[in-house]
């Protein structure tokens, strides 16, 4: 076995899906988190892309490492039919809007609705207002974002994929929430409740079960 | 490419027009991957897509055919302009239109209907206001994608190019609503398809234009031909020509119907794959999502027939969703997976195959892109990285599939795809076209390859006897790449399409298996080397972003290192062996 980044023994995998309107910065957000990089004019995502990064949460006891397996989806509304493939079985979902576009917040609301109806109820949803570096062009106030998040009981962050604001904080906090709500769990049996709900354990070993989890 | 002279270009043009079968000559060039950069690729594409009429018998004169081409392009561009002019009713002034209508009293519509059409509050999608609103929305959507299209390429940075491409996409959406299949609308990815077309058409026009000062080197007859070429590849008609090509590529009626792979809900022939890896098409069935079906067929039955361990790895062990990467490969016809010049070579073959099937079989367009060379190219791509995938874990496998490794030369991959396509085809589509390329050197190479090769049991006998056209060996094509892979000495070796169909079935099986072009082998070995290097680097430059390695991991990386050296020796043996042969 060889791999550029081997899954470490203690890593807890967590499937995360990134949803939201076209050009709100979904790919940029994922790239900022995984590669600590920002590319202006990130090309449109066709189909989906996949990125992963492990993060150690040292203040948990015992300390744990979460391997975020991020599915970054295509934003164009017309491709929505394919989205369930990515949010099914996801431990977390980032619903991203662009703070300089009121319209993108409305799209985010409809994504939240879709997740409520079709995703696993345990999926932790984070509302993310991206491009917060573009303060002068702001169309959505922080309050509006917060109100929506409170109403829907979501985590909420304003981020900037460009300068990195809040990106690591978002994922760290999401990881902690996943642990505290038991969506993902450390321990001997590392299969999450989520994957057990979705895939009745058969003859699979825990390892393949985990792998199964990331692409349903 | 700087070496090409005005005479070279004319020679290339005459290669088609002076041939005893211009049509077959063009199709053969496309399927064999022998169209060179700056050698009028856009002319070939226009031939393949039926935009330029191309005879199957020797034309009365090359001159006459060229004149017909000039005339045809002129007419087609004119028709396009007229179509656009008639469509471009002033969209900001529906009121005026109404007045005009009543003044001339030329309307058969009753008053109710007229009122409804112009009511801004109407929900009717066909109301002028609504249409205008939809149009603006569409323009905004396209602009968003256009803004970030190949932002590292100066050609696409030009506002003019962006505006022209937007215009073509807008027109396509308008025009599309008239299509029988009621397919409408722009979808992300179409802009990338168009970008390659624009690029190819523009490059030819620019190139021909640049050669203009050198017309003095030509005699009178040549000068005439060059003038015609300038009209066929006119810099002022780049947008229109790109539009003609794009529209054929998308169109269900007269083209490849690529639009099927963008719109999920339209009905299209249902596709499934037989155990031999041949895609069967059941025209009566309909599918919810054509591209999803093809993606699944590629990763399951087609791969299973070619490389069972890989099939097992992807579908059982890792359980990779075929659509996660294949949607992009297929929808964009590999534009993102390769450099522009490499993708163009793949497109040559895709369009040439279309041309051959449509024109050869019958009048009706029975071409179905799901049952074309396209899925076979995807299969070849998977087989080429089979080694890497077989040893990968889930994350690594996905990253490999999402970011296809740069290849030095795409032609061996194409040759394999054409070969498999031909073999699996229900109707021996490429009969008489399969180019017979030099076999001697390649045919004797029997060194086993690292990557699993098709086993004899998977070789479906061609279902019809096959004739051959002969083709002069293709010249060498300098690699035109965005990638950073250094050009290797192998550039001198022509790609070999190992056609062995003249032999008996039994002998053929064996030969198909053992005959692999030198390039093909080099490419595979290069990929094995890349994988070895990666692992060796892992030993010395471990990923410590997640903290220091555990003892277990250190032990594992030692083991990897030893395995890597063993593999390195194998590569050496394979390479030395082929050199001695």
From TrEMBL, chain A:
Family annotation (CDD domains): Rab5_related (cd01860)
Biased composition range(s): Basic and acidic residues: 206-216
SUPFAM superfamilies from the UniProt entry: P-loop containing nucleoside triphosphate hydrolases
Pfam families: Ras
Region listing for Disordered, in residue ranges: 190-216
UniProt entry keywords in alphabetical sequence: Nucleotide-binding
Gene3D superfamilies per record: P-loop containing nucleotide triphosphate hydrolases
GO terms of molecular function: GTP binding; GTPase activity
Listed name of the protein: Rab5 GTP-binding protein, putative
Organism of origin: Bodo saltans
Organism placement in taxonomy: Eukaryota, Discoba, Euglenozoa, Kinetoplastea, Metakinetoplastina
Automatic annotation (TrEMBL), chain B:
RNA-binding keyword on record: no
Keyword match Transmembrane: no
Ranges annotated as biased composition (Polar residues): 80-95, 120-129, 450-467
Xref: Pfam families: RabGAP-TBC (PF00566)
Domain named Rab-GAP TBC: residues: 35-354
Signal peptide interval: none
Gene3D superfamilies reported for this sequence: putative rabgap domain of human tbc1 domain family member 14 like domains, Ypt/Rab-GAP domain of gyp1p, domain 3
Source taxon at top rank: Eukaryota
InterPro entries noted in UniProt: Rab-GAP-TBC_dom (IPR000195), Rab-GAP_TBC_sf (IPR035969)
Ranges annotated as spanning the membrane: none
Region (Disordered): 71-130, 450-499
Entry keywords, A to Z: GTPase activation
GO molecular function, one term: GTPase activator activity
Low complexity bias locations: 483-499
Protein name as catalogued: Rab-GAP TBC domain-containing protein
Record lineage: Eukaryota, Discoba, Euglenozoa, Kinetoplastea, Metakinetoplastina
């Amino acid at each position: 076995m060889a791999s550029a980044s081997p899954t470490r023994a203690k890593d807890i995998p967590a499937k995360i899906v990134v949803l939201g309107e076209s050009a709100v910065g979904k790919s940029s957000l994922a790239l900022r988190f995984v590669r600590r990089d920002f590319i202006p004019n990130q090309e449109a995502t066709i189909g989906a892309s996949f990125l992963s990064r492990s993060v150690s949460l040292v203040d948990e006891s015992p300390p744990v490492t979460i391997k975020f397996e991020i599915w970054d989806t295509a934003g164009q509304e017309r491709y929505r039919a394919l989205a369930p493939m990515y949010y099914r079985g996801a431990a977390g979902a980032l619903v991203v809007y662009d703070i300089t576009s009121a319209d993108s917040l409305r799209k985010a609301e409809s994504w939240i609705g879709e997740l409520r109806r079709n995703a696993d109820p345990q999926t932790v949803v984070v509302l993310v207002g991206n491009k917060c570096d573009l303060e002068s062009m702001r169309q959505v106030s922080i309050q509006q974002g917060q109100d929506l998040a409170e109403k829907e009981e979501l985590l909420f962050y304003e981020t900037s994929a460009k300068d990195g604001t809040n990106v690591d904080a978002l994922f760290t906090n999401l990881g902690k929430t996943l642990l505290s709500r038991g969506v993902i769990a450390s321990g001997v049996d590392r299969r999450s409740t989520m994957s057990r709900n979705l895939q009745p354990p058969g003859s699979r070993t825990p390892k393949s079960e985990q792998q199964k989890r990331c692409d349903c | 490419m700087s070496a090409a002279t005005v005479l070279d270009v004319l020679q290339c043009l005459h290669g088609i027009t002076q041939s005893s079968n211009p049509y077959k000559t063009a199709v053969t060039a496309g399927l064999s991957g022998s169209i060179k950069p700056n050698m009028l690729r856009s002319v070939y594409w226009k031939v393949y897509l039926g935009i330029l009429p191309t005879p199957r018998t020797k034309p009365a004169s090359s001159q006459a055919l060229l004149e017909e081409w000039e005339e045809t392009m002129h007419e087609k561009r004119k028709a396009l302009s007229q179509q656009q002019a008639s469509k471009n009713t002033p969209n900001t002034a529906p009121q005026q239109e109404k007045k005009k209508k009543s003044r001339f009293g030329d309307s058969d519509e009753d008053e109710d209907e007229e009122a409804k059409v112009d009511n801004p509050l109407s929900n009717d999608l066909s109301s002028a206001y609504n249409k205008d609103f939809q149009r603006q929305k569409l323009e905004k959507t396209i602009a968003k994608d256009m803004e970030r299209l190949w932002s590292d390429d100066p050609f696409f940075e030009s506002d003019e190019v962006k505006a022209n491409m937007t215009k073509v996409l807008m027109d396509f959406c308008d025009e599309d609503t008239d299509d029988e299949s009621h397919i409408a609308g722009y979808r992300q990815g179409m802009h990338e398809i168009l970008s390659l077309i624009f690029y190819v058409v523009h490059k030819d026009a620019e190139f021909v234009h640049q050669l203009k000062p050198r017309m003095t080197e030509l005699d009178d007859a040549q000068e005439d031909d060059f003038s015609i070429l300038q009209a066929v590849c006119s810099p002022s008609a780049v947008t229109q020509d790109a539009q003609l090509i794009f529209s054929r590529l998308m169109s269900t009626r007269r083209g490849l119907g690529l639009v099927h792979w963008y719109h999920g809900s339209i009905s299209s022939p249902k596709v499934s794959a037989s155990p031999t890896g041949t895609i069967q098409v059941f025209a009566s069935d309909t599918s919810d999502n054509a591209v999803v079906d093809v993606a699944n067929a590629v990763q399951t039955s087609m791969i299973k027939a070619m490389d069972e361990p890989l099939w097992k790895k992807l579908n059982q062990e890792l359980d990779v969703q075929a659509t996660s990467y294949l949607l992009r490969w297929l929808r964009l016809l590999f534009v993102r997976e390769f450099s522009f010049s490499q993708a163009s070579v793949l497109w040559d073959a895709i369009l040439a195959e279309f041309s051959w099937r449509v024109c050869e079989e019958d009048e009706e367009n029975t071409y179905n892109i799901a049952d074309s060379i396209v899925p076979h190219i995807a299969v070849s791509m998977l087989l080429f990285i089979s080694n890497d995938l077989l040893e990968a874990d889930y994350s690594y496998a996905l990253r490999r599939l999402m970011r296809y490794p740069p290849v030095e030369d795409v032609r061996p991959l194409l040759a394999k795809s054409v070969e498999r396509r031909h073999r699996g085809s229900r109707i021996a589509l490429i009969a008489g076209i399969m180019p017979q390329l030099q076999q001697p050197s390649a045919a004797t190479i029997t060194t086993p390859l690292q990557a699993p090769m098709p086993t004899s049991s998977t070789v479906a006998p061609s279902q019809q006897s096959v004739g051959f056209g002969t083709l002069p060996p293709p010249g060498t094509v300098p690699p035109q790449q965005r990638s950073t892979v250094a050009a290797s000495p192998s550039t001198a070796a022509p790609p070999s399409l190992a056609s062995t169909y003249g032999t008996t079935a039994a002998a053929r099986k064996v030969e198909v298996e053992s005959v692999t072009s030198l390039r093909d082998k080099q490419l595979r070995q290069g990929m094995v080397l890349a994988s070895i290097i990666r692992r060796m680097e892992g030993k010395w430059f471990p990923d410590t972003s997640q903290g220091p390695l555990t003892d277990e991991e250190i032990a594992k990386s030692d083991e990897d290192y030893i395995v890597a050296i063993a593999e390195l020796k194998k590569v050496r043996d394979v390479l030395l062996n082929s050199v001695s042969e």
